[in-house]
């Protein structure tokens, strides 16, 4: 028999599934996953299980997928006991503009089926315009714009006055080890204008892979804080299988934006009052060093990014 051991990663744990590629179908694979995780097959979202670039049908043979040795399948899905009868939340609700101090107990919503369905819908329907070649083997850096790279509230005669210090140096350094994506909770028009204004879209020393706008976001509801909009990285992972939880990091000044992927988010200090703080802000320089330090870590989602300033190669101190 052509047996392979496939690792399925779910809810922070890894499960080894024995696969007989000659006879086992995707449905059989899901049934085997259920035996170990208790997640029903219809609630399983296997993000990087692809057949010719698409999600395989349940009757497809596992042998046709041709999984490489050592492949890890990332699963998202909820246990029946934790699936709440939540009301449907319209996708066109206006975004909440204030940041929220999300408590740790809220992170379980990342596995709720109604939100995973929204992510899957974005994967299928949201169109990404590729700007520059994606480089297999590189990790992924996802960046916000407003208050992360740019003070969009202050006034100035030129964009350079509102640009966060060392932006181009930071992106040049990051580009050596990471593909770079810009994801802003605004329209695509404004993203493109801001990237031109800051000289990011034409810089010779780095390239942006693509932009994502507000239409790629989803609305979720937390018991304590109500309806908020977030940036689920599963949208990217579902479209491009070489990007996954283990090799992705997101910088944003709003913690709520990575609530669906808390293990991949790093809350950057907001850059406001550019005229007053431009001379002293060194956040991007320090973050460039952090990205370089963790570039060879196989699973950067396992790191505690909230303690990034205490990290040195080899671990925290």
Your description of this structure?
There is one protein chain. With 317 residues, the protein is of the alpha/beta class. It contains eight helices and 13 strands. The chain folds into two domains: 75 residues, Ubiquitin-like (UB roll), CATH 3.10.20.90; 213 residues, Rossmann fold, CATH 3.40.50.1000. Strand 1 and strand 2 form a beta hairpin. Helix 4 runs parallel beside helix 8. The longest helix has 13 residues. The N and C termini lie far apart (48 Å).
Topology record:
Blueprint: E1 3-10, E2 13-20, H1 26-37, E3 45-46, H2 62-65, E4 72-76, H3 113-125, E5 139-143, H4 167-175, E6 178-183, H5 188-197, E7 208-212, E8 218-222, E9 226-230, H6 234-239, E10 248-252, E11 265-267, H7 274-277, H8 283-294, E12 311-312, E13 315-316
Parallel strand pairs: 1-4, 5-6, 5-10, 6-7, 10-11
Antiparallel strand pairs: 1-2, 3-4, 8-9, 12-13
Helix pairs in contact: 4-8
Order of strands in the sheet with the most strands? 7-6-5-10-11
**What is the annotated CATH architecture of the largest domain?**
3-Layer(aba) Sandwich
Q: Please give the radius of gyration in angstroms.
A: 20 Å
**Name of the CATH class of the largest domain:** Alpha Beta
How would a textbook summarize the main sheet? Answer: 5 strands, parallel
CATH-assigned fold name of the largest domain: Rossmann fold
| Series of H and E elements | EEHEHEHEHEHEEEHEEHHEE
Total individual domains: 2
Looking at CATH, the homologous superfamily of the largest domain is HAD superfamily/HAD-like
Uncertain residue segments: 83-107
Shape: elongated
What is the first-to-last residue Cα distance?
48 Å
Residue share in β-strands: 15-25%
**What is the typical, i.e. mean, pLDDT?**
86
Number of strands: 13
Structural class: alpha/beta
Instruction: Tell me the number of helical segments per DSSP (H or I, 4 or more residues long).
Output: 8
Percent helix range: 10-25%
């Amino acid at each position: 028999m052509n047996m392979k051991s496939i690792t399925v990663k779910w809810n922070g744990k890894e499960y080894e599934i024995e696969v007989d590629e000659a006879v086992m179908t995707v449905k059989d694979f899901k049934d085997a996953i259920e035996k170990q995780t208790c997640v029903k097959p219809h609630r399983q979202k296997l993000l990087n299980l692809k057949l010719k670039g698409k999600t395989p049908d349940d009757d497809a043979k596992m042998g046709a997928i041709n999984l490489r040795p050592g492949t890890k399948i990332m699963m998202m899905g909820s246990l029946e006991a934790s699936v709440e009868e939540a009301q449907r939340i319209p996708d066109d609700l206006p975004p909440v503009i204030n940041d929220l101090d999300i408590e740790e107990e809220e992170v379980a919503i990342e596995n709720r089926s109604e939100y995973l369905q929204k992510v899957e819908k974005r994967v299928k329907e949201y169109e990404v315009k590729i700007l520059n070649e994606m480089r297999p083997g590189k990790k992924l850096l996802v960046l916000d714009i407003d208050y992360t790279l740019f003070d969009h509230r202050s006034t100035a005669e030129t964009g350079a006055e509102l640009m966060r210090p060392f932006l181009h140096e930071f992106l040049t350094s990051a580009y050596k080890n990471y593909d770079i994506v810009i994801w802003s909770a605004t329209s695509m028009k404004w993203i493109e204008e801001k990237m031109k204004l800051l000289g990011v879209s034409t810089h010779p020393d780095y390239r942006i892979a693509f932009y994502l706008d507000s239409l790629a976001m989803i609305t979720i509801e937390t018991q304590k804080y109500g309806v908020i909009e977030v940036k689920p990285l599963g949208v990217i992972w579902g479209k491009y299988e070489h990007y996954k939880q283990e090799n992705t990091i997101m910088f944003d000044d709003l913690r709520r934006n990575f609530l669906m992927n808390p293990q991949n988010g790093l809350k950057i200090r907001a850059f406001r009052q550019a005229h007053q703080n431009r001379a002293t802000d060194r956040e991007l320089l320090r973050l460039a060093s952090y990205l370089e330090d963790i570039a060879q870590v196989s699973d950067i989602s396992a790191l505690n990014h909230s303690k990034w300033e205490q990290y040195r190669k080899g671990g925290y101190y």
